[in-house]
Specification:
It is a single chain. By secondary structure, this protein is an alpha+beta fold. It has three helices and eight strands, in the order αββαββββαββ. It has one domain: Sortase (Sortase, Chain: A, Beta Barrel). 26% of the residues lie in helices and 30% in strands. It has an eight-stranded mixed barrel with strand order 1-2-3-4-7-8-6-5. The longest helix has 41 residues.
Amino acid sequence: MRRALSLALCALGLYLCASGSFIYAKALVAQVLLRSAWAQARGGSERARPWPWADTWPVARLLSPARGVDLIVLEGATGESTAFGPGHITGTAEPGERGNVAIAAHRDTHFAFLEQLRPGEELWLELPDGRARRFVVEGTSVVDQTDTATLMAGADQLTLVTCYPFHATTPGGPLRYVVQARAAIGPA
């Protein structure tokens, strides 16, 4: 009886460890597939899907040189797309356009680095055609999930959004961590 209970508890422990690691593994593997789709997009293919059944495609590449971050940004910030990478929030300026380009991702995978960003740091947004725009972090804030004012800002900026607090034990929650960066003028 003890042996059976021990085996059952070991099996349960292995299952919980594997399922807890799944989201991180999925995020890492997805970025490999997304890089392939990004290469296709850089080659001129519109809506290059990272896998045949994907309902999203790469629209930009987000870089944080100071943090060693290099992420492919997908079109749409739905639950399905943000499981694989950061997503462009529909209704905000398209990457490459003037206005407020807003991108969302999960706090425990792709946007975990936001917790470390500081004012003055640079972020880059690269487009499939090779153009890149430089943004400088101006500040951060914590807002209620219903507060969309930061998304409607008319300034030429980049807004990054994730759930808050960063190390919460339960997913979701009513708060969002927002990083706002202004478009930089002049040479890099």
